UniProtKB/TrEMBL annotation:
Top-rank taxon, per record: Eukaryota
Keywords: Dioxygenase, Iron, Metal-binding, Oxidoreductase
GO terms of molecular function: gibberellin 2-beta-dioxygenase activity; metal ion binding
Protein name: gibberellin 2beta-dioxygenase
Stored InterPro entries: DIOX_N, IPNS-like_FE2OG_OXY, IPNS-like_sf, Iron_ascorbate_oxido_reductase, Oxoglu/Fe-dep_dioxygenase_dom
GO CC term (a single one): nucleus
Enzyme class: oxidoreductase
EC number: 1.14.11.13
PROSITE patterns: FE2OG_OXY
GO aspect biological process, one term: gibberellin catabolic process
Pfam family, one: DIOX_N
Catalysis performed (reactions): gibberellin A1 + 2-oxoglutarate + O2 = gibberellin A8 + succinate + CO2
Species of origin: Setaria italica (Foxtail millet)
Keyword Lipid metabolism annotated: no
Record gene name: LOC101764803
Length: 359
């Protein structure tokens, strides 16, 4: 452990340099994120026990079990409509496994910056800050490895000297995949109803272990907090995200046109609706804008599982008429990238409305 402390400075990405450079160049009346800030209320997300959906016991077919599953699905559908976010317990992802992941993340992010940024490490998936940032409003004070699941077990994915990281990541990905699939099927079933049970069970089309992602995040302590984002406001460009976070806090989401802070729960995973699920649900489920606020004293770790289809998979709809034209995940990703280059921000779903709205 002392070696980590000694190498801490060498491990940090040059986030401070980016901040100061943007501050010098920013001027132009662009205020840092914290200017004019108001008090943010801390709220507890809806808390839902997934135990009755994750079980494989012989009691699944009993009346009480069916009623419990229906109640659980209803609670998630309501939270997805009203919040776009909720917490789940009874998810089957053991605390010991998540603690092992947290320890491996610490080892990974303590590597020298040059090693982390080296092409090939974890499939070349390292990213830090916000390379396209033109103001402090666009800067993220964080670093991450955004790893395609298909590469975790592949021979071409270099884990360097962290050989034990591969197995832990695979276990976490498998466990979170079961959670994401279980939640997605239940939410789809709430909209499709019983006579479309087969379609709900196959939802979402085009998603499997080769198309999803696991993202390991670290938010270093920031000397410029609270005037800096750990992660800039955004929505997720997937069907569903399953998040494991530590107890530091910092996650905020938009609720009733105001930012609210999410109170961490030690035994819960956070689930949030992505853009694709909002489109598929004809806007019944909400992909909500969220962000991470930097912390002046403590670093924060999290791990996110993104339920994504293949690039050529059509997103589809739960029923016609849909407000959105037909599009594939690949089209959506390309449009988001073009929007960011052209306007400096993600436009997202409004670009795919059948009747375009002014932007």
């Amino acid at each position: 452990m002392p070696a980590f402390t000694e190498s801490r400075a060498a491990a940090e990405p040059p986030l401070a340099e980016s901040y100061l450079d943007l501050l010098r160049r920013g001027g132009g009346g662009i205020a840092p994120p914290g200017e004019g800030r108001v008090a943010v209320q801390e709220r507890e997300l809806p808390l839902i026990d997934l135990g009755c959906l994750m079980t494989t016991s012989g009691q699944q077919g009993s009346r009480s079990a069916r009623e419990a599953r229906a109640a659980c699905a209803y609670a998630m559908a309501r939270a997805a409509s009203e919040w776009g976010f909720f917490q789940v317990t009874g998810h089957g992802v053991g605390r010991a496994l998540l603690e092992r992941l947290r320890a491996e993340q610490a080892r990974l992010f303590r590597l020298p910056f040059e090693t982390k940024a080296r092409a090939g490490l974890l499939n070349g998936s390292y990213r830090w800050g916000a390379p396209t940032a033109t103001s402090l409003r666009h800067l993220s004070w964080s670093e991450a490895f955004h790893v395609p699941l298909a590469s975790i077990s592949g021979s071409g994915c270099d884990f360097g000297e962290l050989g034990s990281l591969r197995g832990v990541m695979q276990e976490v990905a498998d466990a979170m995949s079961r959670v994401a699939k279980t939640v997605a099927v239940a939410l789809a079933g709430s909209l499709l109803q019983g006579h479309h049970a087969a379609a709900a069970a196959a939802f979402p089309a085009g998603c499997d272990e080769t198309t999803c992602f696991l993202r390991l995040n670290r938010y270093p302590a920031c000397p410029f907090a609270p005037d800096t984002f750990g992660l800039v406001p955004h929505t997720d460009s997937d069907f569903l995200t399953v998040l494991c976070q530590d107890q530091v806090g910092g996650l905020q989401l938009m609720k009733d046109a105001r930012w609210v802070a999410v109170k961490p729960h030690p035994d819960a995973l956070i689930v949030n609706i992505g853009d694709l699920f909002q489109a598929w649900s004809n806007n019944r489920y909400k992909s909500v804008e969220h962000k991470v606020v930097a912390n002046a004293k403590a670093e924060r770790f999290s791990a996110a599982y993104f339920l994504c289809p293949s690039y050529d998979s059509p997103v589809g709809t739960c029923g016609e008429p849909s407000p959105y034209r037909s599009f594939t995940f690949g089209e959506y990703r390309r449009m988001v990238q073009e929007d960011v280059k052209r306007t400096g921000r993600k436009i997202g779903l409004p670009s795919f409305l059948k009747q375009q709205q002014p932007q």
